[in-house]
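Hi support team,

I'm opening this ticket because the web form for multi-chain structure prediction keeps timing out on my end. I have pasted the exact lines I submitted so you can reproduce it. The total is 680 residues across two entries, so I didn't expect it to be a heavy job. Is there a limit I'm missing, or should I split the entries? Thanks in advance, R.K.
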Amino acid sequence: MAKAINTSLRDALRKNPKTLIFGEDVGPLGGVFRITDGLQKEFGEDRVFDTPLAESAIIGISVGLALKGFRPVPEIQFDGFIYPAFDQIVSHVAKYRNRSGVPLPITIRVPFGGNIGAVEHHSESPEAYFAHTAGLKVVTPATPGDAYGLLQSAIEDDDPVVFFEPKSRYYLKEEIDLPSAAVPIGKAKISREGSQVSVIAYGPTVETALQAARSAEQEGISLEVIDLRSLSPLDTETVLASVRKTHRAVVVHEAPVFGGFGAEIAARISHDAFDVLEAPVARVAGLNIPYPPARFEKLYLPDADRILQAVDAALAYG
Amino acid sequence: MADSAQVVREQDPVRSVLRADGSLAGDPRRALGLTPEGFVDLYRKMVSIRRADQEALNLQRQGELGLWGQFLGQEAAHVGATMALEPTDWIFPSYREFGMAMCRGIDPATMLTVFRGLTHGAWDPRKFHFAPLAIPVATQVPHAVGFAMGSRLEGSGEVVLVTFGDGATSAGDWHEAMNFAGVFKAPVIFLCQNNYWAISVPLPRQTAGRIADRAAGYGFPGIRIDGNDVLAVFAATRAAAERARRGDGPYLIEAQTYRMGAHTSSDDPTRYRTAAELEAWSSKDPIARYERWLRAEGLLDQAGVDGIGKEAESTAEKMRTRLREAPAPDPGKAMFDRVYSRPSPGFQQEREEFESSLESPG
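Hello R.K., no limit was hit. The queue was backed up. Here is the completed structure from your submission:
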């Protein structure tokens, strides 16, 4: 997946001379995850550059550059370091067009999620804060192909997009021919068809849901896995169509369950598909605690077993 | 002010224009590149924006505006800085720069619709090269730096002026932006309108150091000037702009002025400052002192003063009428139209549901 994102950035720089990439350590180093590897060498220091270590200004200058006609693709090095930029993102990036009529085509790339054995602040899932903010689009790929295509769409979009990269899946492999077609923002995908329970996931937990589906199959249980890909705008139709087929739903994410994005999915299903539900919508998510020390993260993160427990409960309901 | 002498350095471009006491050295007409009409125009604009500012306060008191933040006393900074720039240069204001907007040709009545609660932004920034008002303090400073970085990348030659108050210099965004500007040698002028009060907090509670001195820490020059002297503001801004246009990078101007009015129409400054302080600053009024100078130079006479006063009256009157006639926009349009360039089907559906809920009776 890391290579797919790198290729997608390279293609975006090639396609449009207004595309700029900047952030902390994205230049000669190629980023701490090497996502921008080789880009400065190929496109020069004017278009791919290191900035001082200041997230609020990284996003703040993006506003000015976009106003000047550029397509900034700033990188925030880790999920837990996006908070200094929160004001700029929420007060300006999201609202500038509404205030002035001027679109801000900014794509903010953020590696997110846990399961990499990191120290504090490097494993967070802050997506709900941004999905809650009107004016932003929030997307996250689960596969290399989608990472390439969604990023193309994000950079081409005239609206600001927060692009969350599931860092625990950077090394996920898939055979793809690049350049592939752009993946439209706002379209979920059925990652695996099934008939008994809809498992709705995004980003790093799609792979976890697929593992659960493979295990369930051996026990004769058929799970349908939906990869949301886009949290805002949300493809409610694909979710509802699946639930109308299976009558049961389990939502999965790494972020704490309380007030998490799963609550929005559960509410929509409960409201719009109440008539077909045969079990309450379940949420399998992080605990309501700060992200734990690495030694305990496996106990915190949703895994296939926890998903299967929720599936069993949904099937046994009533 | 002896202070200026310590701030002005050898490489300082305003050195030859400004004396250490803030007065102009040599023949200002030649140094500033202004024609006699140009000098009078600075006066005309200060009178005009002051009258409009007063009218906006009246409108607020009469219930026509939700809020008004006066800039009374800061006219020299508004006019001097704006008129020293090229029309293609960009200005990034905070929320008190109504006077600057007027100098840029933005219709004051249209601008007041923001304070009438009809819109969050009433002009196209690209048409006037004037960014939207930034209400969260200091957040516009990095925007200006980003724009200036873009200007430098493209070699398009625009200089950017960003203005803010003394309170903004305490905010993290201000520091981050100043630092970026220094590192990237952005063609940006930081104009601090140090008006001494951030709502009720006086300058010594805001910072223990001098604002102009801070530029040195970011690797570019800073100067403290008399912000109530329109020619000093003009000279400093013009010099800083020329310097930036040459590719020599950013400049910080600390214009010392004073907020004669309240923070906004919701504020009561009698709770935190004295009448004596106000009195002392009244004697430094930017319009009165400039008028004296123009008269002494023979650039303006009583007839000219009267004519300009009438013009300002008429502008304010038109502003009042046009504002009161400003139509309330359609709610669906006002609330949904500008959120996204490419709205999703779900967003459109929410809008339709909202709009049909307005149409249905009861």
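A quick check on our side: Chain A has a mean pLDDT of 97. Let us know if the file doesn't open in your viewer.
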